[in-house]
């Protein structure tokens, strides 16, 4: 089989099938980072309010998905999982090995995407909602005909909205349980920390601000110091001090076990959904 032609890094055009919040976050990130100018990005949408938001980014707006595919070298499917199959099948006649296809749809496997598209130059990416603020955790897996150069190109695009990792697709259910669903666990923790502050006498606004910044700061320390989180925990935990008293309560409540169980339960559910 002949190798697929390389996507021209300096001139390629990017198209989005599906123009929701994730597509907007990716487009905004690649524009703001200078990876792509807005005139080389396109999508389609029929809602006037949504169209005005997309046009404010400077990207090109088509009237239908077929035009997006025809106008693009790289096509990202940013759709709800339940509609991916119908949309890919509808657009199938427009696909060729010259186009690099990418899916960010949760739970839709590469083998199905490749079968529906009639092409295996496909890459699957699992980003998460912090993409909206440029802090996504995205994982990439390459399909059968996707080259290393294709992988590097997509890593550069998604690197514009956060950090990226490469992993085998068999790990994607576990990735969904951790980074896909994980932001919700952290939002719950922030809300609970703020409620604890209110219970201890803090005004609500101050408690929420302190809780949010504390989580942000702790996460930054974990990523930037390269220290094990257990070591960072020990460094703030003085003998017979306030922190160990709080940790003792968390351990009595099974805090770590509950978080572990949440990730495993979400991963299991992801596996169930991908088989349905």
Automatic annotation (TrEMBL):
| Listed EC numbers | 1.5.1.2
Positions bound to NADP(+)? 17-22
Kindly list the places in or outside the cell where this protein is found, as annotated in its UniProt entry.
Cytoplasm
| Gene Ontology annotations for the cellular component aspect, listed alphabetically | cytoplasm
Q: Which GO terms describe its molecular function?
A: pyrroline-5-carboxylate reductase activity
User: Which residue intervals define the domain Pyrroline-5-carboxylate reductase catalytic N-terminal in the entry?
Assistant: 13-107
| Coiled-coil region(s) | none
Protein name, entry field: Pyrroline-5-carboxylate reductase
Record the organism. Answer: Cephalotus follicularis (Albany pitcher plant)
